[in-house]
Amino acid sequence: MASHNPKSETSLGEDPDCFLTNPDKSLVPKFQFFFSKSISRSELKRVLSSNPHALEYDLDNRIVPGFNFFKDLTQCSDYNVFLAYKNCSSILTLNLESILARNIAVLREKGVPESILVNKLIVHPRIFAVNPEKFRRTAEEVEKLGFDPLKQYFLIALQAFIQISKSTWERKFNVFKQWGWSDEDIISAFGKYPRCMIFSEHKISAIMDFFVNEMSLKSSYIADHPVVLSYSLERRIIPRCSVLKALLSRGLIKKYSVCSLLLYTEKQFLQRFVTPFQDPYFLKLYEEKQALSH
């Protein structure tokens, strides 16, 4: 059982730099363990600052076995184990065998590819830290909706159902409905690109407003191409669409796809929409709009 040390917890929360520099003697072995895994001081500070309770657990009975269990379970590197800790520090104090391992077993039973599973576990470990019965039920519901466990969207849909509360789902449904989407449109968009329900209501509204009111697109276009909601409005959508509008106003292009425009890499975008027209105005416009995002 962990011994509670409120002094350690308070010190870490108030001054993590000082705490790591002059730690309590009982904590030195714990820091040494993480440093032995090539974890930097700044990275360790970030994780322990967000979950100081981790230091209350015994090194030999909990911290080391937990670290090794996670590594064996995922067959990943020491650094990736710690990366998972950075992305969700609560797994440091989670009973991995009774919760994490059972949830991973559910996905392996369904045939989720190991590479996709391990990547999601490292980047978004929080979705695995839920009650195993709830996790299994949710995974089955996602599968019934038609998501293929062999594809990465299965885990993204699972993440959405686990992370988003019922009230938040309802609010996001209402945001889309305000732009004329039907229930069927929303469900269809979620099926095509489940991340669309993970984005904040503010992001969804701002992007919908720009496309409908600034670009004169029908909201149904976004429902058909929900991936466009994934891009940054300031850094990608506005700069590229500003160039597009300038080209259209000068009659330099007629056919275009906003979805393709946003999907292109930076190099591809410049090659297709800036360089061919040999006018410095377009590059200047693009760079000015990008600068506004900084």
Automatic annotation (TrEMBL):
One annotated GO biological process: DNA-templated transcription termination
GO MF, one annotated term: nucleic acid binding
Domain of life per record: Eukaryota
The keyword Transmembrane is annotated on this UniProt entry: no
Keyword list, A-Z: Transcription, Transcription regulation, Transcription termination, Transit peptide
InterPro entries for the chain: MTERF, MTERF_sf
Annotated Pfam families: mTERF (PF02536)
Sequence similarity: Belongs to the mTERF family.
Protein name, as recorded: Mitochondrial transcription termination factor family protein
